[in-house]
Specification:
Strand order of the largest sheet: 2-3-1-4
Strand content: 35-45%
Helix content: 25-40%
Distance between the termini: 14 Å
CATH superfamily: ACT domain
Number of helices: 2
Amino acid sequence: MSEQIITVIRVRLVGRRWRLSFLKALAEKLMEVLGGDTEVRINSFIAQPSRLPITDVDIFSGSVEKLTDVRRAVEDVLQENNYPLGRLLTVKHVQVSMAAGEG
């Protein structure tokens, strides 16, 4: 199976458990900012050695240059859902590999 490397926007948050209303609001806000063809992949894990619970939200969109807009959107949704802004660690570009047919 062939793989390809693509650039995505990664939003890294502290925490592994999120209310469904937050995830829905985040998806709606990202589609508003980046357009309707936006897809996300959510991955939660425990970071070693700190044992911090982490959630990565990888955003697959034709528009990967809008980091500031994405950061603002995530901050807005966190505040609207009564999560502290400190739960947002980073918003950055990363390269990920995807198997052909994935996504």
